[in-house]
Amino acid sequence: MRDIVFTRASGWIPNVIREDGDLRLMLGAGADANHEPRTFTFSIGEAHLAVIREDLARHLLLWSAVLPLCDAAGTRGPLDEAAAVALLDPILVSPPADVDAFFRHIRWDKGRLVAHGADIGLLERGQVCAAMRAATETSDGKRAQGYHADRRRTERGVVLGPLDAAILKYTGQYLHGATVPRRTPDAVDPTLLPEVMSVIATAEQACAGMRIGRDPRRGKRATDKRDWDRMTATVDAAVRRAHPELVDDAVRTVSFLMCSEAAGRSRSVPMDDEEEPADGRARLDAGARRRILSFTDDKGAEKKWLPGGSRTATAEFWEFVGDRSASDNEVFTIEDEEKGEGIQLHFYADSIARITTVHKGEGGADPEYRVEYGLVDGIGGYRTLVSAFVRGGCAALEPHGPWMPDAAEFERARRRRDTE
């Protein structure tokens, strides 16, 4: 039989229960192998219950000291009840000076106390009882997250100034550096917001006109890493030049914001719009093409592009790549069967082969092909080559060489490039 004897407004603070006539402290902590929360209990006395009822600070201090024991129990182990009981008198009934001394020799969850309003400065100096004078039953999880984030920065040797902190709060990355940045001006102290916006304006001016294209080799929503790195370097340089007082964390979060927004704009437009040059040349050339193109991958999938449709051949090809590309599917081909030529893209090697039919097979004989290899400079190089082939076939690729007919020579050139 289990009855609740004492509980606080916050359901997470440990409760006191009576179980089979015995007083026990009950708390939820950790999770089992199925990710279900675990519950632990251990015996307490009537004198301990009296302190827990009357003294929120001591109650929270006890909780923070028991939590590491719960963590040690893991997903299925029992709580070390003897160790838990040994915490009761030193924390609940000892003088404040003795409690402070006791906490200097045990493990305890400092973040839990910070979430409940503890004075961080006093906690850091080991004055735990004094730190808990401002404790509250309600918990502020973001305060604890901020404390842990500051601790991680301190361990890296990073000290934020007021403007640094304001910029990180503006981008939503003060608590978690891996969070996708966004603009949150309401999170910034109004007195610092004009300075923050000045930094943001510097970044926006630096990357005006730059874009981050998509990289279908890595999926439909992947972006061009080179474009991303280029924008990052541009924004970082401009912000550091205009605001040399900023720490690296603040500068990085600004460039991350600019790049994330540029990548989002790229993902939001149809592939046709992204691929088409400003002068509309790709669409006109595609409209002039009268031959069917065939797209294939290394897994045997095939897609036909027909002239006269609403979408360009380049857009449909890159969509085909984005849908099909994977770590075990990195070879794609575009073929103009009527003209007897095509290109084969080797994404795993940043290379391409252009293939032309020298003699068509007659009387059962196999056709004769000429295969020439070329190196490709990232997704931008692939886009250029694909667009050129779509507009003018293999002949249009000539200016984008050199083209090497000897496979061994090509392999040597590829290895030289990869070691440079």
Would you mind describing this structure in some detail?
The chain is an alpha+beta fold and 420 residues long. The chain contains 18 helices and ten strands. The strands form two sheets. It has a six-stranded antiparallel beta sheet with strand order 6-5-7-8-9-10. α11 packs across α12. The longest helix is centred in the middle third of the chain and has 20 residues.
Helix and strand layout, with pairings?
Elements: E1 2-6, E2 15-19, E3 22-31, E4 37-43, H1 46-54, H2 56-73, H3 81-85, H4 88-92, H5 96-103, H6 110-115, H7 120-124, H8 128-131, H9 141-155, H10 162-170, H11 193-206, H12 225-242, H13 248-267, H14 271-275, H15 281-288, E5 293-297, E6 302-305, H16 313-324, E7 331-336, E8 341-346, E9 351-359, E10 368-375, H17 378-392, H18 407-419
Antiparallel strand pairs: 1-2, 2-3, 3-4, 5-6, 5-7, 7-8, 8-9, 9-10
Helix pairs in contact: 10-11, 10-13, 11-12, 12-13
Helix and strand element order: EEEEHHHHHHHHHHHHHHHEEHEEEEHH
Describe the largest sheet: 6 strands, antiparallel
Structural class: alpha+beta
Strand content: 15-25%
Mean pLDDT, to the nearest integer, reads: 91
**Helix proportion range:** 40-55%
Rg calculated over all Cα atoms: 33 Å
Counting DSSP E segments of at least 2 residues, the number of strands comes to 10
With helices defined by DSSP (H or I, 4 residues minimum), what is the helix count?
18
Give unreliable regions as ranges. 277-288
State the strand order across the main sheet: 6-5-7-8-9-10
Q: Please tell me what the overall shape is.
A: elongated
Question: Span from first to last CA?
Answer: 74 Å
